[in-house]
Amino acid sequence: MKSSQKIAVSLFAILFVNLSCGRKTLPRSGAESVGMSEDRLNQASVVIKEAIARKDFPGAVLLVSRKGKVVLREAYGESQWIPQHKPMAADMIFDMASLTKPIATATSIMILAEQGKLSIYEKVKDYVPEFTPYVAEKTEANKKSEPGEDARLWHLLTHTSGLPAYTPADEVEKKYGRPCPVDTLVIHIGQLKKEAPPGEKFTYSCLGYITLAYIVKKVTGKTIAEFAEQNIFRPLKMRHTFYNPPPKFLSLCVPTQVYEEKPLIGIVHDPLARLQGGVSGNAGLFSTADDLAIFAQMLLNKGEFKGVRILSPLTVERMTSVYPKAAFAGRGLGWDLSSAYASSAGDIFGPRSYGHTGYTGTSIWIDPETETVVIFLTNRVHPDDKGEIVIKRCRVANVVAGAILKK
User: 45: domain range?
Assistant: First the structure.
């Protein structure tokens, strides 16, 4: 080999090493090396393939990691049926739907809490003066209606503020137009009739997280998309996690529901998020299984990943434990532990495990006791929002938990 060729090869090798070191991903490993049975783990693929054969959803991506290593990363079925069939790939970008809530919104709120810029014990009306309290109905004993206690930020985080689950996007659009500014929408939300006093009833509510995203903007001057990008996704090098995917990434985006004769591709499925131009606290985030694995490992590492700290260990503990003031809800500050929505937990992972689901068919479950992550992404709303996913999430989680033979 000529000296010039040797120099070229050496430079290429140095460049490759530098690029590899700069990438923030999880290493791959065989299941056996982290105390799991590969044969048992492979049963998860069987469960998913059977569901696809029944047309429960067109396709899926499953990523399983344990002790910081990826032991299964597989794509199944198709990413779309309409307007043409297209195979699924493991690096495709999914509409995260409600995974936006813990990953972008709750994390941003807790970063601001750590910085001393807000407290989750503050009243919502301190940021949204129009946020009305619950008003008890008139009774014979009580001849007049009187407002009750004010909701606080932690009520929004745990879905115990008294807000209803949702509000019709078409009605909001008729009243305020499209796109609807977040401050206008939040005033509308704040004035909605509350269903219960704060802290007394769990109602899973997108409206509370839309309000939280507005609070992030009011405190920082940045949208939830801008703040999360600067303080979470960019530091972790989650390069395929964003709101409103740029045009160059649209070919990687998994389509969701067919809307006005075209599938939504890189456009958020949730109507209220779409009404706000794709940026919202309840939905709007897009990501990949690989990027979610980085975020999950950051949590398992008590807030840090490869030298980058996003949250303190105490904050991670608080977010991923049942919040004592609303223990009946089974929720942490953003994360789900044991509510009725915790389908991705399965039946076997322990009480310290936590996660979240998304309406489009996305889910993540994290078990700190076994250092295991299950990321199960599907496009169950394509093409007609009739896909089935709840029981499949449970079965996949059971297979993964059942494959853990050594702690």
Answer: 28-100+223-402
